[in-house]
Amino acid sequence: MASVTDDVREDDGGDPACWLRRVCPACGRLADVDPPVRCAACGELLPAD
Asked: Would the pTM count as exceeding 0.70?
């Protein structure tokens, strides 16, 4: 019988944390361009690093 620790995960999934600055703080949309300046969905000015 195999245990949970014997199970090999091929992909943990998820998005990289480096995309966090591309997330609009107002609506949560991911910006299409990098570096983002303004949210295309709601028009919110995105903060610079």
From this structure: no
Q: 6-41 burial, b if ≥16 CB within 10 A, otherwise e?
A: eeeeeeeeeeeeeeeebbbeeeeeebeeeebeebee
Domain that holds residue 35: 17-49
Torsion-angle region of 17 (φ positive above 0: left; ψ -120 to 50: alpha; else: beta): alpha
| Chain mean pLDDT for the chain | 81
What's the angle, vertex CA 17, arms to CA 14 and CA 19, rounded to 5?
95
Q: Please tell me the distance from the alpha carbon of residue 22 to that of residue 2, in angstroms, as a whole number.
A: 41
Q: Which pLDDT value is given to residue 25?
A: 93
43 within a domain of the structure (yes/no)? yes
